[in-house]
Sequence to fold (687 residues):
Amino acid sequence: MSKIRVYDLAKTLEKSSGEVMEILKNLNVDIKSHMSSIEEDVVKKVENFLKGKEKPSAVPAAAPVPEPEQAPGLPVVKVPERSSVAEVAALVGEKPGSAVKALMAEGLMMPASTAADEKALKILGKAFGKNFVFCTPEEKKAEAAERPAEPESRPAKEQPAPRPHEGKKAKEKNKKQKQKTQGETLRPPIVTVMGHVDHGKTTLLDNIRKTHVTEKEAGGITQHIGASRVEYNGNTIVFLDTPGHEAFTAMRARGASVTDIAILVVAADDGIKPQTIEALNHAKAAGVPIVVAVNKIDKPEAKPDRVRQQLSDYGLVPEEWGGDTIMVDVAAKKGTNVDELLEMLLLVAEMQELKADPSASPSGTVIEANLDKGKGPVATVIVQQGTLRRGDIVHTGSAWGKIRAMIDDKGKMVNEAGPSMPVEILGLESVPQPGEKFTTLSSEREARDLISQSEFERRETDLSKAKRLTLEELYEKMQTEEIPQLRIVLKTDVQGSLEAFHSSLMKMSTNAVSVNIVHEGVGRISESDVMLASASNAIIIGFNVRPDGNARKIAETEGVQIRLYQVIYDMLDDVKAAMEGMLAPELREHTLGLAEIREIFRVPKVGNIAGCRVTEGLIRRSAKVRLIRDGVVFWNGELSSLKHFKDDAREIKAGNECGLSFEKFQDFKIGDIIEAFEILKEKKTLE
Ligand code: GDP
Fold:
């Protein structure tokens, strides 16, 4: 029997997917989204329903799942109400993929993001050796009483706008994007392409841009303004031109959220790689839906199913396996299936009901900015609300100006730009920062006043930023969240310790505070880890690894705390104390300086001496030292000598050469980094 997706059925019936979903609900057919497939007999029932033959609830619900036996004596784990399957798994340190698989094995098809019900809890309990129980109403009440008033809720979603007929008159849908519904209209989705290096992000973007720009505009497609609009089936999709999660997260760290959908590109001949997981976690942390493009399927060694399997282990279960992630096999180089990918993006966008009001006061985000020799300060902005017009006075927080000219992504001068439209604007007095929000003002004078005020506020926040996100203050911070979460970016030296840290941390989740590992990986702490932590209000925990130079600097400016440990129990004690809001006075490590080994001298009877150059700060004879090789701590201990040429020295500053020897360690290598530090005792102040 053949199957059809709900949205395809909706097209043939000239109904909206939403209407068909509603009918299916009335017929008691359990489906997840309009991307789900349904059997022919169900299609018949929908058709009959429309003809008035089928009564609601005439179709029996899916076969009941037998109640699994609950084993007695298992540890009880309290589950907050409305927890998703993934969250239940996370409570006991399990991956969402394992939970989904366990449910599937018992005949229950539940994507990781679905709220777990009693039945699911029982199955998961059996699989993970736990007795999961929902919090009792009393526990919930007690929790609610302790919690401060809920933050202002988002405005209620409006009724979905009626959809135009698709297929035959696809162009109408485009009109629809412009058509007004109580002030708000559907707006085009803004998409970022992410994934591991060389998996084909740029090729995919190029292919989409080359083949999906409408003919009349084709002359000007080379213009690079930071984002481009492409047309598919009469609909617009906006792509951010800089692929990768680094730019995405850097914007988010500044409070900007522009991306509506992330395409995760995974090469089918290579499978998932560290940056694939990084990208996936960055998108997840931002709550941005992911569509997977399984690329390079033209290659004979391509294994698209292996990619699906690997992604399932990370909680992205393909919809064809009962999950809720759309995965499309493509060959970006040849353009194979790229249309299908675009179609899927539009579907995801449709589900999100992305709306904006073109008549509202214009606002949006700066995505790129630079100083052009001829044009002066130039910024590309994406309009998110309202319609931006030439002559408007814009203000970004750090810059302002009257728009002298606007240029679209095809290099064309335009007089106005509506929601989701990227435009380059000229006329600013200075260069704004990417990630800054812009608004418009009524007079130049207002703009000048605001600039001096925001200058002042920025200085204030810069001062307070340094205090942000320390483990000591997390307790306070967490209390303002609906479900208090301790967010962690975890980096370790080897896979084994990653697993040990992961499960120990996850076991620390309690009813009151949950631990959320937003990203984890093996290797040095990178700039991207720091930006993710900054954007997600997380701290970084490192075990036997160090931040690289850039990461350390960015952590300082972003106010992200990096806690480094060598003993798992120290880390667990700190995290527990932070969760309880009782962090003890701490021993703080203070880095003195770094030196790089340039030469190794073998001295008879004495042993090896490392000939170094101090690259940052200073090296002190009394300091504690560690040797770092490829970003990983290789050895820890103390100095046995510090010499400047032949003389003993007390300290040597950056820019100078020195000779070092360690106690009980001689296995130096050229290129190793020596870090000198001291331990300071700091009392926690009672604020
Ligand atoms: P990025 O680093 O993710 O932006 O990757 P690129 O787009 O630069 O692609 C890396 C390499 O993979 C290039 O040599 C591309 O030509 C090649 N490539 C990209 N997509 C495909 C594809 O669909 N099939 C094949 N065979 N090669 C591809």
User: Anything to note?
Assistant: Residues 111 and 323 are 4 Å apart (CA to CA).
